Task: inverse folding
């Protein structure tokens, strides 16, 4: 069985450099690669950087979809570079083509492997009472939604649910929700799988692997005279955070008072009309920090918060003069902002309650603090700190700020999960 290789190392340790070196050094006869990254510009970067082989990017051609083109490229055994979004749409045909080929998957950053399916209050009961769906429990106690074969030809507003149920990608959550679940067997169809990330312990993809009983091996990356090398996690190079502490100037002062409560700046807090005055204070504070304390401008600043429906929350929080300095709080795996050094993180991150409940109902323990911290770190490391240059950082949420201080003063968040294999080399014997 495939054991997932999780290359877990801080931003800037050379994970992508290792992947490029690996793909350049392997023989085309022994290896075919699928490289999956969050952004289109990173697709181009890989295509330009891997010179020993030609990577193909699925395109929309003559009415055929990108997924159609992906299947064509898979059938031809081509090296492929694509986005998370396209890879998430993998179906039965994708599985079959992976099954008969011998691909290595490199996944740059974790991806969305579960998603709540939008439902109205009584949709689920209606489908169950109409016997359009039923709940089926597998031998591991996981509950899946199955579509009634006798009603397979029904054309309704629930067609999307029908399709997910027919491909066994729909799971049941806590008597109230349906969860789309990326087909986990796809990961097991690759010769080798490498995930390039940091703090995998807190990521939803880790809980998803635990849920489905998929084993993962923790690795790290070190630089040697021969380039970048993967090593067992137990042999990793210690992360010297004393240097980080000297480079990151975290604001301390009255502008933080707005975030003192444990839930302040959370999604619910930002959406609550009762907090209108506090949100105005947050907006003014962010402007004050960037403009007056940092003397920042649109070329040096980055800020984030939740977008909200139709960007409603983002517009309320937006500090005057810095509209163009916004990047989403979920930003990762991009170097587009590596010159920025005045940062304002105007949000307090909590897992979606349904997602948390979904894992916990099956006995999977969720580490929400590590998840929140990893989201913060991924965002901060879009800035020039990734190149070892100093930054200024405003984190008004007391909860998020204290998590960040804990990270800078200990290694507790980088301890691997108990279920991880930490003393083995990577699965590809060529390495």
Result:
């Amino acid at each position: 069985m495939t054991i997932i290789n999780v290359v877990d190392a801080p931003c800037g340790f050379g994970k992508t450099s290792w992947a490029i070196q690996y793909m350049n050094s392997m023989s085309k006869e022994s290896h075919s690669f699928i490289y999956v990254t969050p952004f289109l510009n990173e697709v181009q970067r890989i295509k330009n950087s891997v010179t020993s082989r030609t990577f193909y990017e699925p395109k929309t051609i003559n009415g055929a979809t990108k997924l159609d083109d992906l299947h064509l490229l898979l059938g031809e055994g081509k090296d492929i570079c694509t986005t998370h979004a396209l890879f998430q749409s993998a179906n039965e045909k994708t599985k079959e083509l992976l099954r008969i080929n011998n691909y290595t998957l490199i996944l740059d950053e974790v991806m969305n492997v579960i998603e709540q399916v939008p439902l109205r209050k009584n949709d689920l009961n209606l489908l169950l009472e109409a016997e359009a769906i039923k709940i089926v429990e597998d031998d591991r106690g996981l509950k899946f939604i199955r579509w009634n074969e006798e009603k397979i030809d029904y054309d309704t507003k629930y067609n999307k649910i029908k399709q997910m149920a027919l491909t066994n990608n729909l799971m049941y959550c806590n008597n109230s929700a349906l969860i789309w679940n990326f087909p986990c067997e796809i990961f097991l169809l690759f010769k080798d799988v490498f995930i390039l990330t940091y703090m995998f312990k807190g990521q939803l993809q880790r809980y998803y692997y635990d849920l489905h009983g998929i084993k993962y091996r923790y690795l790290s990356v070190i630089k040697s005279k021969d380039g970048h090398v993967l090593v067992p996690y137990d042999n990793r190079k210690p992360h010297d955070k004393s240097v980080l502490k000297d480079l990151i100037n975290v604001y301390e002062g009255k502008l933080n008072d707005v975030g003192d409560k444990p839930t302040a700046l959370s999604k619910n807090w930002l959406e609550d009309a009762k907090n209108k005055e506090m949100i105005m204070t947050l907006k003014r504070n962010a402007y004050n920090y960037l403009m007056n304390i940092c003397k920042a401008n649109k070329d040096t600043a980055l800020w984030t918060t939740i977008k909200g429906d139709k960007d409603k929350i983002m517009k309320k929080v937006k500090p005057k003069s810095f509209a163009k300095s916004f990047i989403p709080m979920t930003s990762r795996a991009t170097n587009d902002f590596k010159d920025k050094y005045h940062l304002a993180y105007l949000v307090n991150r909590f897992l979606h309650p349904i997602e948390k409940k979904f894992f916990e109902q099956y006995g999977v323990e969720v580490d929400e603090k590590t998840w929140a911290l990893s989201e913060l770190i991924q965002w901060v490391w879009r800035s020039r700190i990734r190149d070892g240059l100093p930054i200024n950082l405003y984190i008004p949420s007391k909860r998020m700020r204290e998590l960040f201080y804990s990270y800078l003063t200990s290694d507790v968040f980088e301890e691997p999960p108990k279920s991880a294999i930490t003393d083995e080399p990577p699965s590809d014997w060529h390495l």
Observations:
- The first helix runs from residue 15 to 25.
- The two ends are 19 Å apart (CA to CA).
- The chain has a mean pLDDT of 94.
- The CA atoms of residues 41 and 334 lie 8 Å apart.
